[in-house]
Amino acid sequence: MKLLTIVGARPQFIKAAAVSRAIREDFSADIDEILVHTGQHFDENMSRVFFDELDIPQPLYNLEISGGQHGAMTGRMLEAIEEVLLRERPDWVLIYGDTNSTLAGALAAAKLHVPVAHVEAGLRSFNMHMPEEINRILADRVSSLLFCPTETAVRNLQAEGIVEGVVNVGDVMYDVALYHRDRARLDSTVLQRLQLTAAGFALATCHRAENTDDPQRLGGILSALARVAEELPVVLPLHPRTRKLADKHGLLHHLDALTIVEPLPFLDMLALEQAARLILTDSGGVQKEAFFYRVPCITMRDETEWVETVEAGWNRLVGASFPTIVAAVSETLDGRTGTEEGNPYGDGRAARAIVSCLLQPGRPDIDTNVSPSTGKAS
């Protein structure tokens, strides 16, 4: 079987690493995987280094498409991916997540009648102002296999009338978090380089357009981080776009109180996540990694796709205002955290389940309504 995998953004590299590893280790005789990198993330620390660290095969195609408005970027990707599909004629196209690369891959394949498999299907924020929400809904609509990370995602699809081809495989991010957990602890030197001690700092990330494009929201977040830094050092790997917009909005002075670093390699980020006293983020992936490692998380958004982390008590949804962020940090530092019970994201074998389904999508013994077994990070 020929499988065409489309990636373009940092979180997709991480997820694709788990599935590509499962193919190489268990299914190499059955699957020829062709990797297409759209180029959506082109920064050295946000692209090539991830392929090296995660041992992802180098892309056969690098489309080098980045920048521009959503329509222009997606249109250029759609055109380029279509050419690749016509040349390679794969049996399946595998897409990840909710980026413009995801949408372009889904549309190009669907229009050429190539079946699409979507990893992280069924996620919903129910906020149609988010470009990611539009991308994921449209990708799900044209997919033949919908790989859900949780039962919540399965129910979201059922509510939209999508039941065929829906499989709860668990979360490939949990596979990755378990696989690289100890390696990050042992091999990363980021704590020493930044002169940090375990549980002696907060880790923050901020990159979503809903926060960075709005001067009031970005100001609330950065000023709150600066206040937190008066009590606890705050490490902020600063996304290039966030820095640019902070400058544009006249908010750079808030960064003076923070430990600002460039976007970090994957293992360094995992090491910081595991060692942090708490995490403040607007990233879906970081929310889950905090949960996997049982580090309290404060999510600076108005909604989250990962509701299970909130229900378990490890994640607080606080929006982007100064007082709510600061109050949530204070309560978290006072010791309010979640429980150790259960893990709704599977057993760490989602990637293998995905590949098995791709090889035999119509197999009668695949039960699309059964949750994967629970597991717990140690």
The residue fraction in helices comes out at: 40-55%
For the record, give the distance between the C-alpha atoms at the N and C termini, rounded to a whole number: 37 Å
Q: Count the strands?
A: 13
Q: How would you describe the shape?
A: globular
Averaged pLDDT: 91
Oligomeric grouping of the chains: single chain
Beta content comes to 5-15%
- The low-confidence runs, each spanning 5 or more residues with pLDDT under 50, are 363-378
User: Structural class per helix/strand content?
Assistant: alpha/beta
Strand neighbour order, sheet with most strands = 3-2-1-4-5-6-7
Q: Work out the radius of gyration.
A: 20 Å
Biggest sheet descriptor: 7 strands, parallel
**How many DSSP helices?**
16
The secondary-structure element order is: EHEHEHEHEHEHEHHEHHEHEHEHEHEHH
Q: In short, what is this structure?
A:
44% of the residues lie in helices and 13% in strands. The chain has 16 helices and 13 strands.
Please provide a written account of the structure.
- The protein is of the alpha/beta class and 378 residues long.
- The chain has 16 helices and 13 strands.
- It has helices at residues 10-26, 48-53, 70-88, 100-111, 131-141, 151-159, 172-187, 190-193, 209-212, 215-228, 240-248, 266-275, 284-292, 307-311, 322-333, 350-359; strands spanning 2-7, 32-37, 61-62, 92-96, 116-119, 145-148, 166-168, 202-204, 234-237, 259-261, 278-281, 297-299, 315-317.
- The strands form 2 sheets. The chain has a 7-stranded parallel sheet, sandwiched between helices. A 6-stranded parallel sheet has the order 10-9-8-11-12-13, sandwiched between helices.
- Strand 11 (278-281), helix 13 (284-292) and strand 12 form a beta-alpha-beta unit.
- Helix 4 runs parallel beside helix 5 and helix 7 (172-187) packs across helix 12 (266-275).
- It starts with a strand and ends in a 19-residue tail after the last helix.
- The model is unreliable at 363-378 (pLDDT under 50).
